[in-house]
Amino acid sequence: MACLTDRLLEKGFLSYEDALSSAGDEDALLLAFDLGLALPVRADSRCLEWDSSPLGPGSALRLNPAAGAAIRALLEGREVREGLADLFLDLGMEGHLAYAMAELSLLLSGKGSISGSDIASACRSMGLEGLEDLSVAVLKAAGVISPVLSSSWPVGDARYRTCKLLALLARAAGALGP
User: Fold this and answer.
1) Strand ranges of the sheet holding 145-147, from the earlier edge strand across to the other edge
2) In what order do the strands lie in the sheet with 38-41?
3) Interhelix angle for 80-90 vs 132-142, to 10°?
4) pLDDT band at 50 (very low <50, low <70, confident <90, very high)
5) Which domains does the chain have, with CATH numbers?
6) Are 32 and 131 in contact (CB under 8 A)?
7) How far does the chain reach from its first CA to its final CA, in angstroms?
8) SS (H, E, C) the chain
């Protein structure tokens, strides 16, 4: 998976075939997808759901922006949260909000699957009350969360997958507890 990560950091996008060759086998590629490192994309899709594009021959994969920001920060000797804050600054968040969003990202990413209510509660506990809708939009744009549309309807409360790689990287770097 290290070779796949290097190639994604270098190129940003890979064909499925190149990604498979870099990963070594399908299991490693599926793990990269499951962790939120590599996301399948389709040129004609505007949907932010990671499962909206097929993962298979003829498709393409892109580096998840949040995963890329976290990995680049670690490679530069910085913390995962600093890389995420930089990403949020690039997305137009103001300084203190960018750092709060980075903290929120790390809090949520270790959970794997979350609801809209979980995000709202986490926002309130981190002093982001009133910014819940904005937080969801920015977290989706950054690649921290992905809507799971098939499980959100008809129950009403949106469901999201998280980029689990963020929590793993932060934990490995010592930024999170066990």
Assistant:
1) 113-115, 159-162, 145-147
2) 13-15, 60-63, 38-41
3) 100
4) low
5) 2-63 (1.10.10), 79-172 (1.10.10)
6) no
7) 23
8) CHHHHHHHHHHCEEEHHHHHHHHCCHHHHHHHHHHCCEEEECCCCCCCCHHHCCCCCCCEEEECHHHHHHHHHHHCCCCHHHHHHHHHHHCCCCHHHHHHHHHHHHHHHCCCEEEHHHHHHHHHHCCCCCCHHHHHHHHHHHCCEEECHHHHCCCCCCEEEECHHHHHHHHHCCCCCC
List the one residue out of 83, 91, 68 whose CA is nearest residue 9: 68
Q: What percent of the chain has pLDDT over 70?
A: 87
Query: What pTM does this model have?
Result: 0.89
Q: What is the mean pLDDT of residues 61-71?
A: 96
